[in-house]
What we know:
3-stranded antiparallel sheet, alpha/beta, 6-stranded mixed sheet, 8 helices
Amino acid sequence: MNTYTSRPAVLxxxxxxxxxGAGLQADIEALIAQGCHATPVITALTIQDTVDVSDFKILExxxxxxxxxxIVQDMPVSAIKLGMLGSLEMVDTVAQIIQGLADTxxxxxxxxxxxxxxxxxxxxxxxxxxxxxxxxxxxxxPNLPEAQIxxxxxxxxxxxxxxxxxxxxxxxxxxxxxxxxxxxHNRLYCADGSSHTFTCARLPGEYHGSGCTLASxxxxxxxxxxxxxxxxxxxxxxxxxxxxxxxxxxxxxxxPRRLPLDFCHP
Length: 266
């Protein structure tokens, strides 16, 4: 039997999307593409398709804790990726897990809306996340609409939202693509006061799971030991390629192609 060096394990705390565009399937595929091993902990079950979300169910505290304990007692965790929470109780549950993994790189993706616009929890869940989880994160990765909710600035620019949110977190990546600009501007604000803007060509269409893909790829790059700014650039480049090559299996949004067509082919 061959024995290989283990890939870095990334603890993924996310919801399940039955069409596989977002949530844990996005996490798993994006992490495989980075050369990492995903260890998924289900926080919620959703009823959604490529058009929108219609309902969701949050798992019980004890079940989520037990899933995480089974992982961390069995293998080292090199990074944490956080996705859908959906309730105030789940914010506290996840905070308990993360506090037990101090000094582990932690990417917080504040999933507040599905790609089709449907809510995945009330706004107060976002505010609880802001106060209890963002301060624990290595980096927080909202898109601009999510940043506006978290900053309580409905029409705020990325810079204005960042001024508010950097009081709650170390590093912040606010992703673009929600306006009509020809180029997408992704803005990174760092704890040392520096900022970086990464631009890419705007692609046509709407995408289901792009935020999950980016946050997972970023957690993988950090798990591999890549420096933060470089890791953000690597994750953005990877995510753009998955959108460029996206497919349309359903009636609604495109799904990022996170693995090459010949990934498992002989």
